[in-house]
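Sequence only, no structure available. Ideas?
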Amino acid sequence: MILVAISGRASLAEIPGTLSSIGLLGILPGDIQGLSELETLDLSYNKGLSGHLPSAIGNLANLTTLILAGCNFNGELPDSIGSLSKLVFLSLHSNGFSGTIPQAIGNLSKLYWLDLSANKLTGNI
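Reply:
I predicted one. Tokens follow.
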């Protein structure tokens, strides 16, 4: 299942493929937390996606893959990202994220892949 936004409301739907590189516009809504069964979120290379990553992202308890690479997200990464205990793959490269890398990322014990390159992030992991 993948995330589909229709008329400003997000829902799960059976759609083959990915939402990568399809020209999506807008922001990631704070009510994304309602998608509690979501396992994979790949919105990569949609340059029209921007704004801050909402702290509600940390409520997606079943998320194993988060790919937001090549979009125009900005601001600080929320500490809540460290609550994604099932996360295996995290790719946020080539955005406008800034500030300090949240220490909470160190809590992601199942994380196999981490790519934060091409942002304006500082600090250690």
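Residues 32 and 56 are 7 Å apart (CA to CA).
Hope that gets you unstuck.
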